[in-house]
Amino acid sequence: MKSLLISLAVLVCMAIPTTARVARAAPAAEVFEQARAQLERGHYADAHRRFAQLADCGHREAARIALEMRQFGPQLYRMNFQVGPKQLARWRALLAAPAPRPGQGRAVAGLACEVSAPAEEVSDEEAHWRHHGVG
User: Fold this and answer.
1) 59, 75, 124, 135: most buried, per Cβ within 10 A?
2) How far is Cα 62 from Cα 91, in angstroms, rounded to an integer?
């Protein structure tokens, strides 16, 4: 009887629609706009995290903004943004290098460097089918 109740409880739980958070790779331009919007809304930590991700992928403007946020964080945002010494050196080197000429572009413009977009809520069933390449 006890195992029957447990089985019934499991079936009921499986029948209740739930949501899962599915992360997806996003183009750098989309992530940059999300970071900019977060900065404007006052979500400074999230904005800096996204700018840092893009800077790590070689995005010059994101590196500039992430460095400025780190430098002026306490005065402007009342928070410190932590950046590792190697990360800091890479960003500074990126800004010191000559900018690419128009038409040369960088791999960052597309999906060459995958940056996580905010996770979207989807049902368990939809997450299952996406996992299997459907939908």
Assistant:
1) 59
2) 9
Give the whole-angstrom CA distance, residue 34 versus residue 24. 14
Count of CA atoms in the C-beta half-sphere (13 A) of 28: 22
SS3 20: strand
Q: Strand, coil or helix: what is 27?
A: coil
Render pLDDT for 21-65 as a digit per residue (tens, 0 to 9): 334 456 788 889 999 999 999 999 999 999 999 999 999 999 999
Structure tokens at 73: 């964080």
Distance CA 123, CA 22 (A): 10
Whether 113 contacts 29, CB under 8 Å: no
Structure tokens at 81: 């943004």
Beta strands 19-22 and 120-123 are: antiparallel
Q: Per the structure block, which two tokens stand in for 135?
A: 């939908």
3-state secondary structure of 105: coil
CB atoms within 10 A of CB 3: 7
